[in-house]
Amino acid sequence: MHEQESTPNGDSTEPGRRRFLLGVAGLAATSAVAVSPAQAAPSTTGGPAGGRNRVTAAVTQTGRRRLGSLKVSGIGLGCQTLPGTMYGPVTSRKDMVALVRTAVDQGVTFFDTAEVYGPLESERILGQALQPVRDHVVIATKFGSDIDPDTGAGGSGLNSRPAHIRRAVDRMLKRLRTDRIDLLYQHRVDPTVPIEDVAGTVKDLITAGKVLHFGLSEPGLQTIRRAHAVQPLTAIQNEYSTLWRGPEAKVLPLCEELGIGFVCWSPLGMGFTTSTINPYTRFAQGDYRAAVPRNSRENMPANMALVQLLQDWAVRKGATPAQIDLAWLMAQKPWIVPIPSTTRLSHLLENIGAEEITFSRDELQELNAAIAQISIKGERLPPEDLAMTGVEAPIR
Q: Of the listed 87, 117, 185, 288, which one is catalytic?
């Protein structure tokens, strides 16, 4: 789909995100109310060219992709920010429930959460929002944090011992108001527990009907192979965007070899590739992004070259920088699914609109080459979090 030429959108003269947000301002102003597909304008237009000079807005999402045997919407909704503990406070839980329900109305079927988000609160929000449509959506969540499954209390360590996994899943089911978890990930590899024990436990949960599919997030390569040998993996979830292309070297080829789908967390670089963050940005207290090395005052100026490239392509394609990043991800492989997170209706609609952006073969080759020429400075995560990625589980 993404290798075919899209309809030309003319030579728009300003980056798309600001014009897009103006185009959906009326919807954003009523963000506490779910919006039906008919209420979401398909595009905003400007100038005498009518259909030219257009920014792609939200339409009801119709594209579907497969993660192994699991069919999901081409763009999912990451729910890490819904509790308001990641990038800053949110308006209210009621508004977040409404946001999720609007996503369903707009064709999103894939929702990603974790017990540690909130903690526990993101799962509660999803449970409340999705209960009326449970049979029509796919819910993914994650275990592996060393927190109390009942209270969320605990430290920042890991715990994938089999007994803890079983207890965590039982509590997840209650918070999510469901009888099964469609896709269950180990959030991070526990360096003290053999992956065979983890995969075997999940296999038992699948046999019991509590879990349908198994995945890993940010694992080591050999851990993927070992887990897959015990219980076939449906998806690997790693960070991936134009800002961080690390999975391309080894993880994506391994997924293709084994027939495993790939889910992109932080597909917009924690907001960086949306063109709303720059060297003058000062993050609020408690905003996780302030601790990310690539966002430092020393590193960010060099990284703005990527933002400029995305802005240029946004003008060229009649889109927004965020939509270019998401469309680029989906153009890489048909089994790649981005899950951008947002707490704003306008951004949700914008992200869904990325489905309408396509690249010809020549365009994709040109864009890939341009991205490859940009060197990103600074690590993608704080040291303590980076140390938990790419970990190999111990041998039995």
A: 117
